[in-house]
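Readers of this paper often ask what the protein records in our data store actually look like. Nothing more is needed to write down the fold, since each code stands for a local backbone conformation. Below, we set out a record of this kind in full and without editing:
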Amino acid sequence: MNIQNPVPPFRKKFSFRHWRISNKLLVVLLLVSLAPLLAAIGIVVRTSTDALTDETRANISLLGHSVALRFSNLLLDNHNLLQVSASNPAIAAYLRAAPPATQPTPPEPVNAALTNLQQANPAIDVVGIYDPNGTVMAHTDRGLLGNDLSGRDFIGTALRGQSFVSGIRRDLVNDRLGMNFSVPIREKGAVIGAMATHLDGKLFADMFSQTLSASSDPNEAQVMTLYLVDPNGIIMSQSQGDDWLYRSLGTLSPEAARRVAEAKPLGGVCPDRQAQCPPKDKIARQPEPLPALQLLGDQVLEAFVAGRTGSMRFCWPADLGAAPRTNECSGAWHVAAYTPVLLPNVTASGNDAPAQRFMVIVDLPEQAFLNAVDQQQLFGFGIAAIMAILAIVISLLLARVIAKPINRLAATAGEVEQDKPFRQHAVAEVTTLGDEIGHLARIFSKMVLALQARMAELRTIYQVGRSISSSIDLDDTLHYVANSIRGVVPYDAMELSLLDDTQQKLVVYLAVGGDPVENTQQGYARDQGLHGQLLASGEGILLSGLDAVSEAQNQPARTWTSLDPKSYLGVPLQVKGKNIGALELVSKQQNGFDADKLRLLESIAMQAAIVIQNAQEVRARENQLKQKIQELNIEIDEIKRAKQVGEIVESDYFKRLRAQASQLRAGRSKQEPSPDA
């Protein structure tokens, strides 16, 4: 019988359990080899990225601190230099002398003091001396001599006896970027004038260039950008390019916009589009905002307020005018460190608190320092690719090693399924393997052999069943059973006993190989000996050593006693769970029977019991029929006799005799006298 293998539903064909072994091994090996490797690469890359990011933040913070410290020192040196110059006696003497009515002409010592100051700090592009009224008494720009500049904040502050340091800003007169310094000129504690300088804004770009050129990593220096940001968040200086110059980090708050309008750090323009106007009348320029950098601007302003340094990761978007996003980036991620530039003991108000004039920002794209991580990641992916190739090759080899014997087993199983002879040599090589497949092959071989043995048993049982059911005569049936069993279960003697319910004993109907049955009523008590155990348990009994059992139990004399049997095999004859007899075999050999023989005999006994019961019923019906026929014959004889008598009585001759007899009886009655006479 050929049973087709069920085809899995279409949706399940692609499930893992339906894959080929080679595909399963490939997937498993790839997962086993690549998953830990990729996880390790991910962990290493993540750890390296975090470590490099932290290290870079620390480095650029250190760099920003160094640049801020250089700026602080430079500004402080410039301020101190200005104070030393302002204490020059020649300048005080010049201011004490009454100025001429015409344009002042500073003496040579005063001019020399201005020249020396510029030579001491080349970044100083303007130096001026002012009398108590704010009039220019000496100046590097001769055209300003005699002009009243008392309205300028740095001059007015100095004349009030306070030192002044401005933030970095664009001049309202010439629109040049720089810083203003001023100190009062005192004599015996009284303010007799002021001295001021202007620091050229190119100084900051030069310092940025020097800082970047001194960097230990040229690659980072090429992409690193340094900024100077004022307290309003406006970028006042940039190391390279000018795309962010004079723009604000985010949108200015109303308070910051007010300060910008008042301080005019970006200079101003004349109202009504006038070509020229006094500096005090100019309208402050407002910076163009960079909305996408609002988060960076907020952090920088908080650092201004707290007077602290810090660093952060921010997005440099492709569109600087776009709205800020917290966790998304449409451009490139950057790392920025910010440090305030402090000017100790020099403030516009004259107190001793450090003044925060601007903030140094060091900006570096993440990709600049993550290239090493990318290379490491690429190297890891290369290793992963090599591992994947090795996994594929190994999986194919393993699949071939594993699938080849399995395919051989499957082919052999297919042949067995198609009722072809089992070729044990076809799987002999597989059975020699010491692994699970070899164990499976050995079990498969045993299973097929056992299956073939069971099939042979079934065929034998079928043939035996046909043989023993070929007759309905009880004696013939018993002999067929005995002969059929000998062909499949060899024995030396056999007893076939049937249960007689009326006498409550087993009657031996057939004995083969031992002593003949003495009479048709020879039998045993149903609860005695081994046959008693058969009837009581309803299960077969297999004994390899019959001597010990015979001695231990009260066994009756059997027809095979003279054979001195060594092995015993017995099964009950049952029909629908009811015992009708017992079938017992003995052998003169030790271990003459085994479990297979017991199973086979039990199978035969189930059929034999039905056939024997049918034969018994047929015999019983035959006996009943014979009795009924005999009774019917008696009735027929009586009927025949009655019929013959009737025929005689109805004959004419018998009728004449009856008439004559009647006449004779009538004549005789007339002749006899009456008793009363």
